[in-house]
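Standup notes
- DV: blocked on the single-chain target, sequence here:
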Amino acid sequence: MKAEMDREELLAWLRADDPIRLEALWRHADHVRQRCVGDAVHLRGLIEISNYCRRQCAYCGLRAGNRTLKRYRLCAEEIMAAAREVAAIGYGTVVLQGGEDPAIETGWIARLVRQIKAETPLAVTLSLGERDTAELAAWRAAGADRYLLRFETSDPALYQSIHPGLNGIPVHRIDLLAQIRALGYEVGSGIMVGLPGQTYASVAWDLLLFRELDLDMIGIGPFIAHPMTPLGARSGEQAVTGNEQVPNTVQMASTVVALARILCPQANIPSTTAMATLNPRQGCQLALERGANVVMPNFTPWIYRQLYEIYPSKGIPDSSADSICGRLENQLTGMGRRIGRGPGGRIGRWIGSKPEFEIYENVGYA
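- DV (later): unblocked, structure below
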């Protein structure tokens, strides 16, 4: 199994159901992970800053058409308090995530990023949806290091069916990812596994696109239906004829994570919340054993955390950040892994004004 795998090889692995073959794939992906990014697991402190969204995405519980969701928007003081907590515990990165909230102004985010960079040693990752180049450039100039924007699927017809454009004008996320790269960000993207209408062929193209885009971060998780969305309302319907519909299982998502690791050996790949939601006891660990090297504990204030409902029953521990960190450290130690130090950026990429030199340890600035 090599990073040069072609579409037919990927299809064979995606369709594989022999447990012995799959275990061999997962072991190989774990070996690639250990050899290329080391045993460090980098922890990103996630802050979900707003659940307002102007979009009508067919899969997301934050969609503007969901009138049952109580909306919130964090103030700068709440965000800074959470960011200071992330830094105090020793994490290297804070992730500011939100829906496409029209009230989140360019200058407000820029000031927030500058304040985080001035008061903490944290790298700043933004995940705020589709934004124009001027906004993205302003946030990069303010000091933001990374930007996450999932392209969701490389299948144009499926993409248009789940992600309608604003005012009828579609935005091609792959083109936007190229603009984000040109601005000097580390670039993250990814897909949901098991979307209704998603075929094995389209996932194979998704994997090849990860490699073509040379992504720094790749987010992969199983699709979980939200009942207040068009896809949730059609849950259980057969979306693809024959046996080509990709299942939204932890096993299938694990296979895609493993293949992504083999194709993109130096990328940062998180163990996503969706994995832990479908398998609360083992989901996080299984992803880490099959190619992932990042975990993103949630630092959103508890009173808002349950309102960021992209999908229902999202795995949200109600423990303090200290206890979550302690449990994670114990779990990682038991796996022969350790918590990474520093911002933990893509090996060979630059973060801010300094490169990362430690190829196998990936522990941050030299």
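- Follow-up: The beta strands are 40-50, 93-98, 123-127, 146-148, 186-193, 217-222, 294-295, 338-339, 350-351, 354-355.
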